[in-house]
Amino acid sequence: MSHTAHIRSHRKPRRSASSLAMRAGVAGGVLSTLAVAGAAGSANAAEPVTQTLELPTLTADLATQAAQSADATQQAAANYQLQAERDAAAAKAAKQAKADLADAKQKAAEAKKKAEEAARKDAAERASRSTTRIALTADDTSGSTGTSTGTGTSTGSSTATGSAAAVISFVKSQLGKAYVSGATGPSAYDCSGLVQTAFKQVGVSLPRVSQDQSTAGTQVSLSDLQPGDILYWGSAGSAYHVAVYVGDGMFVGAQNPSSGVSEHPLSYDQPTGAVRVL
Is residue 186's pLDDT more than 60? Predict the structure, then answer.
């Protein structure tokens, strides 16, 4: 036996045909796969790539914060609206106050004007009474019949009888009571209210106001007065004051708020004229 028979040969063994065929097939498959991949890559490179972005999902905290922000925005809007309404109301109130002030000033001016006119009228009436008193005094004569009053004015009978006595008794019983404009008794009177109520006691119905009472009966001279005659101040038909002549040169009337129902001599405030209804 050769001494080299047990040494393995360094030559590679021959592969079988089947093994070679298998390797060739695998290589072909790999090359095919690479070709397909290359084709797909070329196709993808030619077409635009569409990328989808996913929005983050709101968590519970983010939802709460969004709701609070919405509430705050709504509250702020409500506050702005409320402030606007308050501003509008304040502006309206200021405008109304300005109008009221102007109206009050106008009324005050009108009242002042009326007061001044009343004062002028009163002064004119007083001047007229003084002039009338002087004229009557000058016209009186010492030969007149009746009782002298001490002022130059003579009167007739000083003794009241019948209905006249009742009228005089009534007005004297009201002495000391208050003067209230428009009052007709029993606790207060104005001038025409006292005269009307006095004559009502004897069944004589007189008008309510002094202007009408000054023409209610027969005009008589101041030099021929009798108890129960109605004295008036001013012109007949436009008299501003009346009273009752009670005799002896005296009269009773509701004069004014300071003196009330009181008795005075004719010289206290000389009347303009007189009427007789009894």
Answer: yes
How crowded is residue 129: how many other Cβ atoms within 10 Å of its Cβ? 18
Under 8 Å CB-to-CB from 224, ≥6 apart: which residues? 146, 154, 155, 156
- Give the integer Cα–Cα distance in Å for 60 and 58: 7
Query: Could you state, in order of their start, the residue ranges of all structural domains in the chain?
Result: 86-139, 151-276
Which has the closest alpha carbon to 155: 278, 266, 233?
266
Distance CA 226, CA 269 (A): 18
81: its two tokens: 């609206």
- Please report which confidence band the pLDDT of residue 21 belongs to, taking 50, 70 and 90 as the band edges: very low
Strand partners, 140: none
User: In the CATH hierarchy, which top-level class contains the domain 151-276?
Assistant: alpha beta
For 177-210, give one letter per residue: b (16+ CB within 10 A) or e.
Answer: bebbeebbbeebbbbbbbbbbbbeebeeebeebb
pLDDT (tens digit per residue) in 69-81: 888 888 888 888 8
